[in-house]
Amino acid sequence: MKNKLQVFPSGNPLVDLTWGGFYRGGTYLLLGPKKSGRTIFALQYAMQTVSARETCLYFSSFRPKDLLINAAAVNIDLQHFIMQNLFTLVRVTPAKNIEYAKDPDSYMVEYLRDLISVIDQYNPNTIVFDELTPFIGFKDLGLLKDTFLETLDYIEEKGITSLFVISEPITPAANKIVSSLLNLSTGYITLEKEEGFINKRNPGTIK
Q1: Which of 19, 112, 127, 165 could tie 131 with a disulfide, CB 3.0–4.6 Å?
Q2: pLDDT at residue 4 above 60?
Q3: How many CB atoms are located within 10 Å of the residue 28 CB?
């Protein structure tokens, strides 16, 4: 990461007002339940990046057509930026029946480490992972921390700013996983389903 900290807009007015934007090379987590506006927030951040003529690598389980439709619903023309090679969509799908594998954690370790090879291929300014939840269901929280930190260190050293979208934890096990990742992030944002935007009472923290 560069010695001089740089802050740039996130594309969301409340985040920019509260924090001044995102730190370049920082790692941010976006949490919220379904239908809370997580993908819209992620797309706004991606558009802020490409509008500044920087590149965004966007990981998603959405089919390209579906993501284009979601973007168009909020007046974002993704196709325009795709054609300019500023926005790259990489579709990801979790391994099927992973819970029946002899060592499911090892599969997820490889999934996270594969991020590095894809990032090296495209060398983006920012990455968005919408959403990370299926890839972090580790049984061994220590292994999750080590693997995620290894991935983050690599990304941050390249000066890439990242946004990881995660489902709001609904079980004690899921809560432990998310709590582990929060401690490794630069900051986190919580969305509320009722309002569809950042919780004004607790917009997140930057550590």
Answers
A1: 165
A2: yes
A3: 23
